[in-house]
Specification:
With about 450 residues, the chain is mainly beta. The chain is built from four helices and 30 strands. The two termini are about 30 Å apart.
Length: about 450
Amino acid sequence: MKKQLYFLLSLAAVTGLASCSKNNDSGTTPPPTSTNVDIRGTIKSSQHWTKDKTYRLRGYVYVDGNSTLTIDAGTKIVSNKDSAGVLVIYKGSKIQAIGTADNPIVFTSNETDKKPGDLGGIVIVGQAIGNGNHAVIEGGVDAAHQTFGGTNDADNSGNLQYVRIEYGGKAVNPGDEINGLSMYAVGSGTTVDHIEIVRGLDDAFEFFGGSFNAKYLIAYNCADDDFDLDDGYHGKIQFAVSVKDPAFTDNKGATGDISNNFEVDNTTDANGYLKTPITFPLLSNFTAIGPNNAAGTSADYGYGMRWRRGSKFILANTIVMGGQKAGLDIDNDPTATYYINGESGFKNSLLHAVTATYKTDKLSAVVFTDVTLKSLAEGRDGSKSFTSAADIGLTDPFNNAAPNLLPKSGSAAATTTAKFEGSLTDAFFTKVNYVGALDPSAADWTKAAWVAWGK
């Protein structure tokens, strides 16, 4: 009760910070004087959150009206489970959340006993191009903020750098959730790098259409998919990590859903999987660690990679290991056709899985077998598969509390040289000489201060 009263008094002291449309002469809300500030409702003028205060999100908070939310490095934003906070940066508005390696911006639980779902998550909504597979934003946002997308692939939603999002995930209904970080039709003018999602109740990252690019992403111990790309997402990502807790998946109910390191779709079968633009990410230098059949592994774990429903992809210079039911899975006729004709490819990468390394599924007219997939991946595309995860040679990848993803000296992971060919010659990609997310000859960037393990 004292804690609640303190927040209410704090809120009273800073009227105008949120849920208020009054502007001063500069159009910017003055900084609050309290050290603990409740934020709720709709923000309609620009605000500046500073690290000397803690901001508590109360339910859905919308940044709207072409305003900008600036968050200083080292700022902490919290949420309680009684009103899981969701921060929505809506079309035309921007977030300027620029942390540093030593002073990240942290969104986290305000509970003593922190659990997934105490926080909702962050939703950024842009005006770039998608294919309309989802008509509205998921997760129970209000009617005024449900639509997304436009025609401007260069749209700019701001900067998100050195940000950690912990204990997120809000399930409104089955299949209708808030993820750790949801990006809806966000444009390439937006800067996204050094983001970690920790112990989320649903997907870590889900990108619905859009063209933005990203580097240095970590998904750690999230319950559903770590990299879920759909609705025509056509950006580029390099240097990313996915680590799964073997015992932790979300409640699948009777949906038949599974949890994967990658799950990439184009559209639903009602749209014939063919709506354009087609989901087509260009990806390089990932390290993805599945449960590897550890004791207590959830029956709901699926694949290292699941490419389906008409998606295309290029994934190169990557290490995927420990997938439970399969390593590389291709579903549905259009997805298979893109792989067969070389529009898609799993290139110059290292693969291990507990059961089937390669799997094809849900095909009708297209003849494409597990054997054919392996032949293309390891012949044309130059990847390699391993019957034992140890043969890939990462230092300690399945130590979930403190994973060490650096390649061992002399291992396959350390001696395989990266290749940047075709679409990967794009200037976005840093032309490193190693596969996976970590340089075996350099300091481990996943051990920097902005990254949290053991949660």
